[in-house]
Structure formats: structure tokens, C-alpha cells
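Dear colleague,

As promised, here are the two records you asked about, laid out in our usual form so they can be pasted straight into your sheet.

NAME FIELD: protein one
SEQUENCE, THEN STRUCTURE:
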Amino acid sequence: MERTTSLVFLVSLLIIFASVLNQIRAHTCDDNSLGPCKNCDERCKAKHGPLSVSKCNGGDGMCMCTYECAPLLPDKVCVGAIDMCTDTCPLSCCDRLCAIKYKNGRGGCVDYVGYRMCTCEYSC
């Protein structure tokens, strides 16, 4: 039983780690509306914060600013594990538990090395 618990724990940690990495990836945007290159870096940082990066486009002499922003894409889908799927908690039970634990969560039973894990997909 201890080996089963250890395996479930390691698989759960791997899934959680992967979902956290998916959540922390930054999205960048470009602002081309800052005008001529004079004082480009100061204007870029004043408008978009100290982590923004300015660049002067030599072709047209215009300032471009790259900064971290919210993605315009729909919500990302993350994966998390809750527990084992069993006779007392089959697919419908797993789906219900995921809906309770995660916003827009959906659950399913997935085989991992001979064990049936209840995994959840949810918006993150």
C-alpha cells in the first residue's frame, strides 16, 4: 500500500508542477504608438513599467516598447489530480469532485502505470 501511495503522490506532484509552469508563462505585447525614438526608453518604462524593453526602429525612427501583458487568448487549460478512481468513486464522482474543486473543472479517470487517477481539467 505504501508503494501505491508514493506513486500516486509523485504523479500528483508532476501534474501540479506542469500546471503551475503553464500558469506562470508570461505573455508579451508591443506598443508602437510611442512616437519618435527620442527618450524612447524613459517613455516606454513610464507607460509600461520598469520591466518593459524599448527598441528604436532604425527604418522609420519610431520607438517600440515590449512589455508583459495579459494574453488575448481564451483561458488556458490546466490539469490537476485529486485522488484515485475506485468502485466507490467512478467517473461521475471524479467529474463532480473536479467541478467542486476547480472553476469550470471537468474530471476523468486516467490510467497511470496500472492505477486509475482522477484528473481534472480546468480554466487557469
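NAME FIELD: protein two
SEQUENCE, THEN STRUCTURE:
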Amino acid sequence: MPKYYEDKEEDTRACAGIREDFKACLLQHDCVVKEGKMPSECLKEGHCKALQTSFFECKRSMLDTRSRFRGRKGD
């Protein structure tokens, strides 16, 4: 579930909840915080892989013609 922040505009883009969780996972991971690496480097090492896959699946479902019947994933 996306985290709640006061005084924050709601993101209405597709897959916004998963995007926010994925971003928070990367920025709060020890790889970034303690080791001082870039989030892109941590992704290559395989951190937050489950959220990365979920975000990819959500974005891919936007292009899937069957989604007009089922609805987008992650919303």
C-alpha cells in the first residue's frame, strides 16, 4: 500500500502507488543510505526486485489490449 503523507498532492498517474513504494524502497535501502550508492546501482545489484517486477507488470498491463476488460493492475 502507498504511504500517506500530509500536504502532498495525490498522484493520478497510472501505477502511482507501486511507483511510490518502489521509490521509497530504493531510497531507504541500506545500499543507498549506508553505502552511499546511486539507486540505479542498487537496482543492478538486485535490491527491491519484487517491487520492480510489480511496477513493470503494472506498466505493461497498460499496453495489454485485454486490460480494457480486466482493468489495470495495481490500481
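A couple of things worth noting about protein two: The helical segments are 16-28, 30-33, 39-45, 49-63, 67-70. Residues 16-63 form one domain.

Best,
R.
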